[in-house]
Amino acid sequence: MLSSIFVSYLPYALVTSFTPGPNNVLALHTVSQNGWARGKNTLLGIIAGFFCIMAVCALFCYQLNHFLPTLSQALRYVGAGYILWLAVHVARSKPAGEENRKASFWKGFLLQFVNVKIIFYAITIYTGYVFPAGGSGTMVVQPLLLTLVGTAGFMTWAAAGGLFQAFLTKHYRPFNYAMGAVLVLCAVGMVV
Description:
Layout lengths: L1 H17 L3 H71 L12 H7 L4 H15 L11 H22 L1 H6 L1 H20 L1
Helix pairs in contact: 1-4, 1-5, 2-3, 2-4, 2-5, 2-7
């Protein structure tokens, strides 16, 4: 039963995980600016925060459905605000050698709590695929599976940042502006 439920939502999960979003942009930017060794704390923060959100959504999905209109409206604006702040930070940042900012666990972790994309990702999968298939007994495993798919997405973006690190460091200004613009589009898409 677990595998049939997983296969049913896998296409949606893959598309959502690999398309541009706050986690993917932050992972790509962190590795391109800091490398893998110095960026690992942010990546670990994304993973830990992502898993926490998947677990919270699994535990409270039915209650969230009741409170969803109010909660989603508040999270949408809070999340959009944070993502806009992150867009400005990304656009203004310089390669790691020019500034002494350290990639932090908490930057990646806290992003998850305002990342409406992954909150809706979880709610959609739980309410649209897992519960209708009678998969409430698999809820202990679902947060882990969703985190693995999400991690595959942003680690792919991080790998791109690592592969193109020299190029991106040399041309950081237009790249950072482009990544900031992607984040602005993410924020606008959340509130429109």
